[in-house]
Amino acid sequence: MTTSAPVVPAAWRRRALLAPLLSTASACLLVARSAFDSDTFRNCHYLGPSMRMYVTSWAGVACALGSLLAYAALRRAARRYGPPAWSTWQGRCATVSVLITSVPLVVLLMTVYALYAPDPSGGYDCSGLYPLTT
């Protein structure tokens, strides 16, 4: 008697690719967010965070958390209905991407914190000496 590989439904395999897709989106949003760091100052005047900084930071956090939730749902469905989550290449890819997503998630949470932090220059100009000179 030979044992064959477990049959994995096609819908399950497609849903398994949602976690790597969201992980990749969160990493791309983190890169985009870092490109917008120069939006806060113009001609040595603090303008505050731009709208695109808010959007990319919060969307990146949402994608990273969505990736973790999609993977949790995948593992739960695999435990209930079918083979282990790592039995297909899609499941292995989802597992690896979720493990890697923890780093961008922590960095994105720090960028969200930085959005609501006070003015880093300490004043109205680039030097931060405005309170001392007035």
Structure description:
- It is a single chain.
- This protein is 65% helix and 3% strand.
- By secondary structure, the protein is mainly alpha-helical.
- The longest helix has 31 residues, at 51-81.
- The N and C termini lie far apart (89 Å).
Radius of gyration: 22 Å
Q: Number of DSSP helices?
A: 5
Lateral arrangement of strands in the main beta sheet: 1-2
The poorly predicted ranges are none
What's the overall average pLDDT, rounded?
79
Strand runs, count? 2
Helix content: 55-70%
Q: Which overall shape is indicated by the principal axes computed on the Cα atoms?
A: rod-shaped
Output the helix-strand order.
HHEEHHH
Strand content: under 5%
Structural class: mainly alpha
Summarize the main sheet. 2 strands, antiparallel
How far do the termini sit from each other?
Answer: 89 Å
